[in-house]
Structure formats: structure tokens, C-alpha cells
Amino acid sequence: MCKLLYGHVWAKIMGKEKRGDISNKTWTEVVKDYAGKDLGERKNWYGSVAEAYNRVRPRYPQTVIERAIQLAQLSPKAKILELGCGPAIATVPLAQLGFSLLSLEPNREASELAKLNCAEYPDVEIQNLAFEEWELECDYFDAVLAATSWHWIDPAIA
To answer: Disulfide check for 95: which of 33, 81, 121, 138 has CB 3.0–4.6 Å away?
Structure first.
């Protein structure tokens, strides 16, 4: 049985229940706009800002990472499936702790940045795929992580 870590858990740990807005839209408006797009559009939705996102997106404090691991009761050698890793903002600190990760990122630009950011971690595999495109591997992972990406997955599939 996999444990699920997703944005709401991260928000609770960090003491934040609301994320910022984009282009003067509320987060709900951004998500509704994104959710209305087909998979091809969603995969390219933020490619033009991936580099800036990688550069300026705040990193998770180590206490947040440690608390998430504690809440999920992960063993030191746990295998994690990460959904929507972006440029590997949560991936890197987990890899530094020795976790094995398969990280899916639908956006090509963000996926390439994730590969660069994780190049020194042999137990991290980045795949340029959306969760909707990935073929499920049953009973392989100990946990599923969607640090701040769960809301981007089609609710009919998630």
C-alpha cells in the first residue's frame, strides 16, 4: 500500500493553506483554466517560465522534508513515485537523503531542468511524462509524492 503525500499535506506542514496567484488570478481560477485544457496544452502550459521558476521558486525547508517523511513513515530506502516534479524542487532534498525516486514531469523544459538538478543522484529517474500517460507499476513504490502538483492532475484520473 502506498502512502500519498500531496500539496495539502505540504501546505499544512508549512502552515499555509493558500498558494499565490498567477497573473492576478486566484489560484482557483488558474486551476480551472488549466484543468479545462487537453493534455497536450497542459504539458506545454508553463514551459516558457520553467527556467525562471527553477531559479526563483523557494526551496522547501529541511524541516518540511523531514516532517513529510515522518508523517508518511518512510523507511530510509523507500521508493517514491513523484508526480509533477517540476525542476526537482522537492526531489533534490529527498535524493540527498538517499531515497529512490521515479519522478514524472509532463513539461519538457521542466523535465530537462530536473534531470540537470538531479544528475548527481543515481537513484533518481526523471521521465518526461504526465501521470495520465504513465503505466502504473503496482506494488513497487512505498509512497506517492505530489509536493505542489496534485491539483494539476485530471480529477477523473486522480
So the answer is: 121
